[in-house]
Structure to design on (223 residues):
């Protein structure tokens, strides 16, 4: 009797399901790959924006790496270029500057014209010209050697770049799809800069994220 009872207990224990083995811990997710380094002169969307330091007309130094956090817009500027004149004369550029700086964007207008070339003014005269044009940018940066312009491959005025809060290039190219100096072309134009800013806000890639800039050639110093 005892033997039969013991045998029954052993059989019952053998038939019980095994306890689930503890699941292996999931590996920690890998950190997002760092953005690729930029190729000087050919700044592709998705790369880390090349760092630079330039002095503004008021003497303040701006270093791009120190501006992580807000979105940054770079605008290559030559007030005497008729294509730039279209966007300032039509109040297009200033409206965008005021809108985005009001949202915390840092808008830097870069002047890569060499001394003696079209678009170059000494700082005080540049400030007077900015006031005359109604500019609302964060600062006008002076790049008389053209080092930063060449680093970014800035070809025309205007030439626009949008840089994300994390420091990657979101957009590189023309401000819109109307490559003409005629002010009437502003009406109905597709503004690529606005598209890129809206895409960044929505967490998606700009489409397009790169276009061919149009305008006056940047008046660089002889290399």
């Amino acid at each position: 009797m005892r033997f039969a009872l013991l045998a029954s207990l052993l059989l019952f224990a053998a038939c019980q399901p095994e306890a689930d083995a503890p699941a292996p811990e999931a590996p920690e997710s890998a950190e997002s790959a760092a953005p690729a380094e930029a190729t000087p002169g050919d700044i592709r969307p998705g790369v880390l924006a090349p760092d630079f330091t330039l002095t503004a007309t008021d003497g303040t130094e701006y270093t791009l790496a120190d501006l992580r956090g807000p979105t940054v817009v770079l605008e290559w500027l030559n007030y005497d270029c008729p294509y730039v004149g279209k966007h300032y004369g039509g109040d297009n550029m200033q409206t965008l500057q005021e809108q985005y700086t009001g949202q915390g964007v840092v808008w830097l207008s870069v002047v890569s014209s060499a001394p003696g070339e079209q678009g170059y003014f000494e700082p005080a005269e540049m400030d007077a010209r900015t006031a005359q044009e109604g500019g609302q940018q964060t600062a006008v940066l002076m790049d008389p050697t053209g080092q930063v312009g060449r680093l970014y491959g800035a070809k025309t005025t205007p030439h626009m770049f949008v840089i994300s809060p994390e420091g990657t290039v979101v957009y590189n190219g023309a401000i819109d799809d109307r490559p003409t100096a005629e002010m009437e072309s502003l009406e109905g134009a597709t503004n690529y800069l606005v598209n890129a800013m809206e895409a960044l806000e929505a967490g998606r890639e700009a489409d397009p994220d790169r276009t061919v800039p149009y305008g006056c050639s940047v008046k660089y110093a002889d290399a």
About this structure: DSSP finds six helices and nine strands in the chain. Residues 1-31 have pLDDT under 50 and may be disordered.
